[in-house]
Amino acid sequence: MQGEIKVNSTPGQGSVFTVQLTLPPCPEWVREGWPIQSNHCALCQTTEDTLELRRLDEGSEHACPVLIVEDNAINSRILGRMLEMAGFTNIEYTHNGCEALEHLQHARVKILLTDLHMPEMDGLELVQHVRRQYPDWEMIIIGITADAFDDTVSVCMQAGMDDVLTKPLTRQKLIDSIDRLYFQRKDLARKGLSPKNRQMPSTM
User: Fold this and answer.
1) What residue ranges in the chain does DSSP mark as E strands?
2) Beta carbons within 8 Å of 115's beta carbon, 6+ residues apart
3) What is the pTM of this model?
4) Which residues of the chain register pLDDT less than 70?
5) How is residue 77 annotated by DSSP?
6) What residues contact residue 58 under an 8 Å CB cut-off, 6+ apart?
7) Which stretch of DSSP H or E encloses residue 55?
8) In this structure, is residue 29 part of a structural domain?
């Protein structure tokens, strides 16, 4: 690295070590303090499969529409940035379930990420409304929560979520979940089945 290490010692008092290294500028998410874990680099690689996922519809010129439902602005932006770094470009944001339902009236969302605890309408109620109002809409819905109890996960899945991820959330965990659910749907479609016939996915 062509660096330099210096040591200054004073008997009976201690030593001071100085390390100087020439490094490239840090990425934006480090400068702004986003808590994305060190394994993010593995997700920077783009394959044909992941390109297909980002578009969802082969040959489409429109990026995969994603809706983030989160009342905490910082958490919302972190999620958005994770998706952007993975190649998603069409990301919208709402602050609670009521706003999300209004948004879905005029936007054909493919992936919905929702917090559980929000004012006005929480994530559970939102998902129940979505699955009732749009029964044939094969939207991927992922819940995100700090509550890791098994009964909470079970309730979320019964309400209609496809997966539940617990905080703290890494980009690897988020994208792995989206990838798995998307290709699971693609496999079911090849077999002429609906996601309604699938087994509930694992939360790990």
Assistant:
1) 4-10, 14-20, 65-69, 90-94, 111-115, 140-145, 163-166
2) 69, 70, 71, 72, 75, 123, 143, 144, 145
3) 0.68
4) 1, 24-63, 148, 194-204
5) H
6) 52
7) helix 48-55
8) no
Listed in order, strand segments (DSSP E) in 34-148 are 65-69, 90-94, 111-115, 140-145
| Structural domain of 112 | 35-197
Contact of 129 with 101, CB cutoff 8 Å: yes
Tokens of 91: 């990301």
CA distance 7 to 91: 50
Counted domains in the chain: 1
Could you tell me the end-to-end alpha-carbon distance of the chain, in angstroms, rounded to an integer? 39
Query: pLDDT (tens digit, 9 = 90+) per residue, 122-146?
Result: 999 999 999 999 988 889 999 999 8
CA distance 178 to 162: 10
* 19 within a domain of the structure (yes/no): no
168: domain CATH number is 3.40.50.2300
Contact indicator for 147, 122 with CB cutoff of 8 Å: no
In-domain check, residue 122:
yes
Tell me which DSSP letter residue 120 carries.
S
pLDDT of residue 198: 42
The reported pLDDT for the residue numbered 54 is 53
The CA-atom distances, in angstroms, between 167 and each of 37, 74, 126 are 12, 14, 20
Single-letter residue type at 139: M
**Domain-embedded: residue 12:** no
